């Protein structure tokens, strides 16, 4: 199978119980741009909010499904246990440490145990996040922060960094990453938990912070019970629809149950679960979020793919209003 390497992270999708507070935190505190306010295409009663750089470039997107009755997350294995967000350099982490304190956000201080300067924190629902310095990154390039963000552009978030998978059986997940998805194991670093194996680092594409997965094996945890503040899935970048078709064939050849190619309008997707139950998505780089909105007005209205437009009145009636309004001025 003549497959091109996956290009790195495409997006991470998580769960929130409160779209309004979620919007306020990720735009006002973290300074990301809401580039698309749409629906969960598999359940149109849910918002699907996309936060990203100035125009939602692949590799910069952190998305949320709103599930108002989502319960508490009980953290554990078989999970995406940490999402990192890249900033320009170590100096920016100093800025962010002060900013998080000013906004009353609990954090763990700057550490270096992954080999890079990192600042772990949580959002208002306990979402596990970290800011990561790109100072020595030589791999996948980041995006461009929005000029109208409340965070100065020089300190803005430029994209997704490594995603941590926490599993009870690391070998089976590692096999999928390497033998099926084409990642390469490049290094390890010590676990922060005494008595647990080193965390394995896998890279794809140009590698670096935008092309890494961290695999943490834990034998001391129950399976995670997801809820608000948990991650639903991670998506990896595929160049285009033709390449995605090849990946569908390859995943089928490897006898992994999967969704086949799914039309999401802003990109096409393929979904499957690895042996520890974590949901993976492969998603195309395009067409992108300007398919139905201008760059200037991204995220300001409820955007529906054309195949949902006939249901707009019914869909809007089932959603709690989330008034974003015009945001083109600071």
Automatic annotation (TrEMBL):
Which CDD domains does the annotation name? Answer: PcpA_C_like
Q: Which Pfam families match?
A: Glyoxalase
Domain VOC as annotated: residue spans: 8-134, 159-285
Molecular functions per Gene Ontology: dioxygenase activity
Q: Is Oxidoreductase one of the keywords UniProt gives this record?
A: yes
Q: Which InterPro entries match?
A: Extradiol_RC_dioxygenase, Glyas_Bleomycin-R_OHBP_Dase, Glyas_Fos-R_dOase_dom, VOC_core
Q: Which domain of life is it from?
A: Bacteria
Q: Which UniProt keywords apply?
A: Dioxygenase, Oxidoreductase
Q: Which PANTHER family match?
A: RING-CLEAVING DIOXYGENASE MHQA-RELATED, RING-CLEAVING DIOXYGENASE MHQE-RELATED
Instruction: Tell me the protein's name.
Output: Ring-cleaving dioxygenase
């Amino acid at each position: 199978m003549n497959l091109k390497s996956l290009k790195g992270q495409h997006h991470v999708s998580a769960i929130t119980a409160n779209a309004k507070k979620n919007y306020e935190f990720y735009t006002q505190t973290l300074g990301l741009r809401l580039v698309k306010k749409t629906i969960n295409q598999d359940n149109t009663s849910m918002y699907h909010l996309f936060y990203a750089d100035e125009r939602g470039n692949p590799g910069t997107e952190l998305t949320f499904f709103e599930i108002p009755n989502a319960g508490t997350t009980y953290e554990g294995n078989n999970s995406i246990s940490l999402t990192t967000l890249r900033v320009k350099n170590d100096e920016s982490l100093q800025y962010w440490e002060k900013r998080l304190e000013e906004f009353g956000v609990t954090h763990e201080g700057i550490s270096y145990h992954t080999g890079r300067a990192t600042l772990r924190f949580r959002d208002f629902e306990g979402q596990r996040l970290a800011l990561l310095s790109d100072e020595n990154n030589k791999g996948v390039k980041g995006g461009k922060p929005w000029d109208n963000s409340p965070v100065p552009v020089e300190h803005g978030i430029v994209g997704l960094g490594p995603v941590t998978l926490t599993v009870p059986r690391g070998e089976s997940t590692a096999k999928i990453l390497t033998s099926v998805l084409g990642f390469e194991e490049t290094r390890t670093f010590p676990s922060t938990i005494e008595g647990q194996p080193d965390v394995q680092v896998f890279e794809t594409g140009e590698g670096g912070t935008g092309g890494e997965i961290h695999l943490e094996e834990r034998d001391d945890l129950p399976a995670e019970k997801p809820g608000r503040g948990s991650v639903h899935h991670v998506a990896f970048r595929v160049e285009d629809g033709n390449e995605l078709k090849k990946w569908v064939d390859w995943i089928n050849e490897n006898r992994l149950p999967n969704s086949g190619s799914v039309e999401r309008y802003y990109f096409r997707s393929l979904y499957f679960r690895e042996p520890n139950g974590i949901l993976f998505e492969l998603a195309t780089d395009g067409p992108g979020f300007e398919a139905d909105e201008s760059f200037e007005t991204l995220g300001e209205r409820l955007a529906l793919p054309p195949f949902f437009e006939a249901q707009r009145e019914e869909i809007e009636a089932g959603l709690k209003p989330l008034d974003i309004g015009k945001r083109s001025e600071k």
